[in-house]
Design a protein that fits this description.
By secondary structure, the protein is α+β, with helices and mostly antiparallel strands. The protein folds into six domains: 2-144, Rossmann fold; 161-213 and 522-657, Topoisomerase I, domain 2; 217-309 and 448-517, Topoisomerase I, domain 3, CATH 2.70.20.10; 351-443, no CATH class; 662-758, no CATH class; 891-949, no CATH class. It contains 27 helices and 45 strands. The longest helix is centred in the first third of the chain and has 33 residues, at 152-184.
């Protein structure tokens, strides 16, 4: 008996379906064929490497040895329970071996290995390497299970990556948070990382280039010529410089993409522009005799047949770049969409790949995929167009596609041949058709064109003209046929130069000076940033560019998340933090925030290049690849990491000591009358022997110097606003709430000080409407004083609407208010309603009697479901109430994990079904989320559901 460990439940179920004969366990946490195989699963990262930390910069660096690392179950709902199931299965006497079937890559290897290690089993470990989620792909992976030792290099590389990221991130973040907080005199999380900090540096440097850019004027000289009544134009070029570049350029008369051609064209501008107008005027004058232009003295013409090769197959970064360019999808969104195509639809191969090639033994499989595309999707013109032409070239393309040396963990992203589910979202379809089109294009012949390069001389001045005519469109025919791809590049037409012979006279018609200005570099987009992360040599010049060719930072699996973390305003522990990057404008350019700039400026000023230089981190990735090939190199890698961290922590500690500590002016220590230090998070006595210390930040509110002075001197403040009660993560839809309160400064028995909230009360001049007892007014409510028997209260803010004093008095006196606007539902929708006192429940609630569509502002177009009623539903918060018969539905039933959208409710009212999440018990007392098909019963008019397995 063997246990197969998948990375997530969905993959486990797919393996079981492919192999056949499996049934669910009673707990639904594993599957078994009752013979020789059990399939269970992790929940992504289930176990993580951990080591105790500190917030004290003086106690850094933290450099755990191998034996110091702890293996912790991630603290999240259901994780411990799932690990317990896995361990119990591993420990079963019937089980003889464990198979790691987690994702086929560095992270998947780590997920499986850490679970295996945490379980403390000694049973043999095997590896199941999955490249495709189709039935055939899973069966192939199962038949080729290998001993885990074959992947020991990958295991060590994964562990080195995880350990080094932790060591760099924890040490760097603790130290940087201490330094930046003291610099700004405000506690602020500053997260540094082995990859994220160089990425931030790249964006900051690009912004500096833009900010410091000074536009320069330039001049170009253009000429117009005539041959046999036909005209053509040329641009002055430095002919000798062009000859040098052509000599040094290894020109095989092929280019792999339009992008390379663009780079070549942009390079030509350096040979034609003048930044000194006097020099341009001098050349211009040499082309004239007074007011007349001089005659043509010579013509040199070069003709060549050139090719533009079909693009490579997609790797993850390239499709992220293209999707961002075409659809403005972020890298993270594109990754999620391709992942959905892989896992849910089984329509494409493994997405987190760096390769653009296929194995050399894959031609037969590729032929099968083309056949499936043409038969299973024969009615889809965009899929079948030119598919046969592409298939016919499988045995022609050679190493352009089939090259084992260009494949590491995974091959390129290609379709599997499986038909895409029609219910797939438009975004999923867009990504799928991009992959199908690139798959076909890669096999099609190159675009062939004839290029004529003509140099027309006026004395020694050369004017360059280029003519191009398409001989065979090749793969371009596919691109141009797709309306989505039919952009300016695809629309380029032939540019022909008029033919001439040596006997023909070419006349100079005019020579003119043209003026222009240089433009600043463009900011990064999500797509260009992730692409630059893949190959940082794009940022380099000269020898460094060659040395770092094909070097990247991060991996296909992590790059999108790195960008998202830098854009995020929430730290990993849920605390607020300042974003270091931000998106700007309709193009969603990625630019640094002021805080992001400050972080990089500080690191650079203190010589911490190991965290800021992208090329430094790229070298780190190369070393990880060395470990992948030779596991024994892991020791050298970790020593290298520890040396780097020790160096930059020393520099940060020195910087921290050199920042002066601010004092709280106008106030002295209540214990010993010494000065008070104003630290980022605390106010504390400058006398190290004194124990006075209090928080500066209370419930996310930073107390001002004036507020601190009042609190310390008077031991109490007046009512202060801006405190935040955090949302309860265990309650779905829970939100942060802002509140007001006074503060009291208290002393414990041990002499230490602490702050507590104080809510001042005053007698209210109206009696309780329920029990007639006296009422009290507080900063947040008006409440009955009989808190034992009544406890009735009116909150001053209800559904994000602040009530006026008159509205509260009206409610207490009359038991109801008039219709009030400005309430907000849990979905964020504005609604109107009356507040009423519910005597039975002893609380304030809503009434929608007499609330018409004009008041709610949300009249739906959905007709009432009740028989014989012609009314329409009015939307008030989560309630859909008929404006005629007053029957109603809620868009937030208790069993649903989140409210139904307006579109979903509309479908239900039309008698259609809606797929939505539901909370159910898994049979072990644990609440789990599943998918359910909801509908409204046409007879009973009740909302019903069927759980989808």
């Amino acid at each position: 008996m063997r246990v197969i460990l998948a990375e997530k439940p969905s993959v486990g179920r797919e393996i079981a379906l492919a192999l056949g004969g499996f049934t669910k366990s009673p707990t639904n946490r594993f599957l078994t064929n009752q013979k020789d195989c059990i399939i269970t699963w992790a929940i992504g990262h289930l176990v993580e490497l951990h080591h105790p930390t500190t917030s004290d910069i003086s106690k850094l660096p933290i450099l755990p040895n191998d034996e110091d690392w702890q293996l912790n179950i991630i603290d999240a709902d259901g994780y411990q329970a799932q690990f317990d199931v896995i361990k119990k299965l591993f420990d079963s006497p019937q089980v003889k071996e464990i198979v790691n079937a987690c994702d086929a890559g560095r992270e998947g290897e780590l997920i499986g290995r850490l679970i295996y290690q945490k379980s403390e089993t000694t049973k043999p470990l095997k590896r199941m390497w999955i490249n495709s989620m189709t039935k055939e792909g899973l069966i192939t992976a199962y038949k080729n299970i290998k001993d885990a030792s074959a992947y020991e290099g990958l295991n060590q590389a994964a562990r080195c990556r995880s350990k080094s990221d932790w060591i760099v991130g924890i040490n760097g973040s603790i130290a940087a948070t201490a330094v930046m907080s003291r610099m700004q005199n405000l506690s602020q999380i500053t997260a540094l990382g082995r990859v994220k900090t160089p990425v931030l540096t790249m964006v900051v440097h690009r912004q500096r280039e833009i900010d410091n850019f000074v536009s320069e004027q330039f001049w170009e000289i253009g000429a117009k010529f005539d041959v046999k009544g036909e005209t053509y134009e040329g641009k002055w070029v430095n002919y000798e410089e062009i000859l040098k570049k052509q000599k040094n350029h290894n020109d095989d008369q092929e280019s792999s993409s339009d992008e390379e051609e663009e780079e070549n064209n942009s390079d030509q501008s350096s040979t034609s522009r003048f930044f000194d107008k006097a020099k341009a005027d001098e050349i211009l004058a040499s082309c004239h005799n007074g007011k007349n232009v001089k005659a043509v003295s010579n013509v040199i013409e070069n003709q060549a047949i050139k090719k533009s090769n079909a693009p490579n197959l997609f790797d993850l970064t390239t499709i992220q770049y293209i999707a961002n360019k075409k659809f403005k999808f972020s890298s993270k969104v594109t990754l999620e969409l391709v992942q959905e195509l892989y896992e849910k639809h089984k329509a494409v191969t493994y997405p987190r790949t760096e390769s653009t090639h296929l194995p050399s033994d894959y031609p037969v499989e590729v032929a099968r995929i083309f056949d499936d595309l043409m038969t299973k999707q024969k009615n889809n013109a965009s899929v079948v167009f030119m598919a046969q032409e592409a298939k016919d070239r499988i045995n022609v393309v050679g190493k352009h596609i089939f090259d084992d040396s260009k494949i590491t963990d995974h091959f390129a992203i290609i379709p599997t041949g499986k038909e895409l589910d029609p219910s797939a979202t438009d975004a999923v379809k867009k990504i799928y058709f991009l992959i199908v089109e690139r798959f076909k294009a890669a096999f099609l012949p190159p675009m062939e064109y004839s290029e004529t390069e003509r140099f027309t001389f006026i004395e020694n001045n050369a004017f360059r003209s280029v003519g191009k005519s398409i001989i065979n469109k090749g793969w371009k025919a596919l691109v141009e046929a797709n309306e989505e791809e039919n952009d300016k590049k695809a629309k380029k037409k032939d540019v022909l130069l008029p033919a001439f012979t040596t006997k023909d006279e070419i006349k100079t018609l005019s020579v003119n000076l043209n003026h222009g200005k240089t433009t600043a570099p463009k900011p990064f987009t999500n797509g260009t940033l992730v692409r630059t992360m893949q190959n940082i040599s794009r940022l380099m010049k000269g020898d460094q560019k060659k040395a770092l060719k094909d070097c990247g930072i991060g991996t296909p699996a992590t790059r999108a998340n790195i960008i998202d973390e830098l854009l995020s305003t929430t730290a990993s522990n849920g605390s607020p933090k300042k974003a270091m990057l931000q998106e700007s404008g309709s193009n969603k350019y990625i630019i640094p925030t002021e805080y992001g700039k400050q972080v990089i400026e500080f690191l650079e000023e203190n010589g911490i290049s190991s965290l800021t230089m992208p090329e430094f981190t790229a070298d780190w990735e190369l070393q990880l690849e060395t470990v992948n090939k030779n596991a024994e190199k892991s020791v050298d890698f970790m020593k290298h990491t520890n040396d780097i961290v020790t160096d930059f922590i020393s520099k940060l500690q020195t910087a921290h000591k050199n920042i002066p500590i601010l004092k709280l002016a106008g106030c002295e220590c209540p214990e010993c009358a010494n000065e008070l230090n104003l630290e980022p998070r605390f106010v504390m006595c400058s006398n190290t022997k004194c124990r006075f210390k209090i928080q500066r930040i209370v419930a996310d509110k930073v107390l001002s110097d004036a507020e601190l002075q009042v609190l310390i001197k008077n031991k109490q403040t007046g009512v202060l606003s801006g405190f935040v009660k955090k949302a309860d993560p265990k309650i779905k839809g829970s939100k942060n709430k802002v509140f007001s309160a006074a503060l009291d400064l208290k002393v414990k028995e041990d002499g230490s000080y602490f702050i507590q909230f104080y809510f001042p009360k005053s007698k209210y001049d109206l009696a309780c409407p329920l029990c007639k007892s006296e009422m009290e007014s507080t900063v947040s409510s008006v409440v009955c004083t009989d808190n034992q028997n009544c406890n009735f209260s009116v909150w001053r803010t209800i559904n994000e609407r602040k009530l006026s004093e008159d509205e509260i008095r009206t409610l207490i006196q009359n038991g109801t208010t008039d219709v009030l606007n400005g309430f907000k539902s849990a979905q964020g929708n504005n609604f109107a309603g009356k507040l009423v006192i519910n005597h039975e429940q002893k609380r304030v609630g809503f009434s929608f009697d007499g609330v018409d569509a004009a008041n709610t502002g949300e009249e739906s177009k959905d007709k009432c479901m009740q028989d014989g009623c012609a009314g329409l539903y009015l939307i008030a918060g989560n309630r859909y109430k008929c404006n005629t018969c007053e029957s109603w539905y809620t868009s937030k039933p208790k069993i649903a994990t989140k409210p139904f959208s307006t579109a979903q409710m509309s479908k239900l009212f039309k008698g259609k079904t809606v797929t939505h999440s539901i909370k159910v018990d898994d049979g072990t007392g644990n609440e789990v989320t599943k998918k359910a098909e909801y509908y409204i019963d046409p007879k009973t008019k009740y909302m019903r559901y069927n759980i989808l397995d």
